[in-house]
Write a structure and sequence with these properties.
3 helices; 84% helix
Length: 82
């Protein structure tokens, strides 16, 4: 999961550069951005579900943190569309 975090951070940096040149963004880049947003939304929902089903407080906390991280990333990616 943390390997994906590095990928996400690199992706965000890439899209920050792209969004600075929004007039030059391609349809493929826009589609990729939408896919990333959808993937993070799905991850957020699933991780919250897992957290709500946990009995062990440490595991619950891990899922809750991961869900929040996914939500934060989704919000950051979504901000590029505005």
């Amino acid at each position: 999961m943390y390997k994906n975090l590095k990928f996400v951070k690199n992706t965000i940096k890439f899209y920050e550069r792209v969004m600075n040149k929004m007039s030059e963004i391609t349809q493929v880049e826009l589609q990729n951005l939408r896919h990333l947003i959808g993937a993070h939304d799905t991850a957020h929902q699933k991780l919250n579900t897992y957290a709500n089903q946990c009995v062990d407080p440490q595991i619950k906390q891990t899922f809750t943190k991961a869900a929040q991280d996914a939500l934060n990333t989704k919000q950051k990616l979504t901000s590029f569309l505005n």
